[in-house]
Amino acid sequence: MPTLTELLEAGAHFGHKKERSYPRAREFTYTIRDSVYVIDLEKTLERLKIALEYLQKAVRKGQIILFVGTKRQAKEVIKKTAQSLNMPYVVERWLGGMLTNFETINKSLKRLSEIEELIKSEDFSKYTKKERMRLEEKKAKLKAIFEGLLKMGKLPNALFVVDTAHEKVAVLEARRMNIPIVGICDTNANPDLIDYPIPANDDSEKAIQLILSTIEGGLKGIEADLPEKPAEKENQPIKGGKISKPVAKRNKKGA
Fold first, then answer.
1. What CATH number does the domain containing 13 carry?
2. I need a surface site. Which of 81, 175, 207, 209 has the fewest CB within 10 A?
3. Same domain, yes or no, for 86 and 159?
């Protein structure tokens, strides 16, 4: 776990101005200075620990965690962390339906694999120059979006999201599909949408790197215990500081 000093030096405590902040995010703030909320870093550490423990249980069960971070400050560290853990990732842009219409997305993934195999084959030379160029362009376009999903094969069991307000489409799709969400939440985000919120400045590259390095270090080397064990009763999502009902039951009520 990082220290309070390390989080402070990374700027993890800087929130947004009061008028841009979400009311429920005040639970994770320490004070307000010059109309800007200051995040309580003790709560950041507390929630980071809870989130990491949940992710460790997921990895031990052999579950898939999809890492999502398309903003400039998050792209490289999300990709690096996901690749290190052999997990899927999205760093370019989130296409609507990546979770709710996964069959269509899976077709695009298969198409990308087919094009890559064709380009590597001897038959590729039989195509005209124009046709080869079109296939190369198609490959580059698909790869930019789907490269991190090639090995996913099925819907993920959990999402890790940097900037849950920015990635609102991914968050809403995950909730609709009853997929638990771990997310770095700044004061402009609604923490009630996230099962395991980590309150922190999600505009600071240093803060993002510090949190992701903690996640990577905590998950690296964990081996899956297969066959998958039944879910433990105490492993309930946490919402706004309180133990909440499982996501699936919550969504049935239309929350």
1. 3.40.50.10490
2. 209
3. yes
